[in-house]
Design brief:
This protein is an all-alpha fold. Helix content is 58%, strand content 0%. It is built from 7 helices and no strands. The radius of gyration is 22 Å and the shape is elongated. It starts with 11 loop residues before the first helix and ends with a helix.
Length: 110
């Protein structure tokens, strides 16, 4: 009977079905997180994208962010001085959201 009695244990059904196929040390190991290498990508692969979206011209459209502070965050990250990838991720999300939902409305005079 697989009623909901063991749902407080994460991945109960997966562990149950795999118990004869995987070693016990794998089945019972602690959960491990997976981090995306944003810090590296922002400095390399997505550098131009970050610099474009977080440029002073782009940030000034939001009116409530200080382009100088955002620039300092980006500059410190790009130089390798600091890992500001979490802040940059948040800023990118905000700018993209703003452009999609607020900026487009203002452009139509709403």
């Amino acid at each position: 009977s697989l009623k909901l009695r063991n749902l407080r244990h994460k991945k109960y059904l997966l562990k149950l079905t795999m118990k004869n196929k995987l070693p016990r040390r794998i089945i019972n190991r602690p959960k491990k997180g997976f981090n995306i290498p944003n810090a590296i990508w922002f400095r390399n692969k997505w550098r131009e994208y970050v610099l474009d979206l977080l440029s002073p011209e782009s940030i000034s459209k939001l009116e409530f962010l200080d382009a100088g502070i955002v620039g300092d965050i980006v500059k410190a990250h790009m130089s390798g001085q600091e890992d500001n990838s979490h802040k940059i991720w948040g800023l990118l999300s905000l700018v993209i959201w703003w452009n999609l939902f607020i900026g487009s409305e203002r452009g139509r005079g709403l």
